[in-house]
Amino acid sequence: xxxxxxxxxxxxxxxxxxxxxxxxxxxxxxxxxxxxxxxxxxxxxxxxxxxxxxxxxxxxxxxxxxxxxxxxxxxxxxxxxxxxxxxxxxxxxxxxxxxxxxxxxxxxxxxxxxxxxxxxxxxxxxxxxxxxxxxxxxxxxxxxxxxxxxxxxxxxxxxxxxxxxxxxxxxxxxxxxxxxxxxxxxxxxxxxxxxxxxxxxxxxxxxxxxxxxxxxxxxxxxxxxxxxxxxxxxxxxxxxxxxxxxxxxxxxxxxxxxxxxxxxxxxxxxxxxxxxxxxxxxxxxxxxxxxxxxxxxxxxxxxxxxxxxxxxxxxxxxxxxxxxxxxxxxxxxxxxxxxxxx
Length: 342
Prior knowledge:
By secondary structure, the protein is of the alpha/beta class. 45% of the residues lie in helices and 16% in strands. The protein folds into 2 domains: 238 residues, D-Maltodextrin-Binding Protein, domain 2 (3-Layer(aba) Sandwich); 90 residues, Periplasmic binding protein-like II (D-Maltodextrin-Binding Protein, domain 2), CATH 3.40.190.10. Helix 2 packs across helix 10.
């Protein structure tokens, strides 16, 4: 969408959101109903809204919104970068974040908090499952996952890395207790692998890219283990706030425009990625092309299939003792924005 269309959208947004919200009287989430009633009474003033948005990576959303001409929002946006979705949800629980972009796993663990983590999954960002790997350092004698029995394996707690490591061990006939798991951040895990203090690393994104640049090899890939569902999460209070509600709805649609811009401008985006992640342009472009071929990123409304997928993940984590009790993930989901996602 060009800037002229975005300008028209910004002007028309309050009225459109008010009409849509008024039509959504059958929403399951009560806080969403409060927002609808307030919005129907009058257009919310988005100029006074600041959306605090979290992400895992290097700050690609801020750079991408600017490059795609999507940064002319009728509200303020503050982007923050975290090393994992679990850290985003910790910030959200402390009321320091309005939107978090995570995998299926962090909300499950966050839901174990006293207040249920104060979160609601409002959309799914379908994306690729590449660069999610179990890697071994250069010179390792490990040849298969079963060789990790009794060895130190670093992983990022309460993330996709935590989950896919469990699944890889199961497939190799090992249990969680058969290894010496070492919970580390993405950067500390990478340092531990390169420094030789762990025998393998389960991680994702830039940590995997850097690991390969330092001679690491892939022991197992999670590309066929993970669903590719990455929840978009907000708080119950933000759903109930008419202005925040409207701003989030607009942001979700801009997020889809950003994803579409990347799909249509792959070389340009690869140049930006390469510059920010200090990797060769050819490698960044190849990674991007592979991800777009596997599954172009797109924001979608919540669905029964997505909820069932996350429930399966939760049940798996419980079956190996990583969750102390059964989690009904359905309570974490809200369809308050489903009719607004274009």
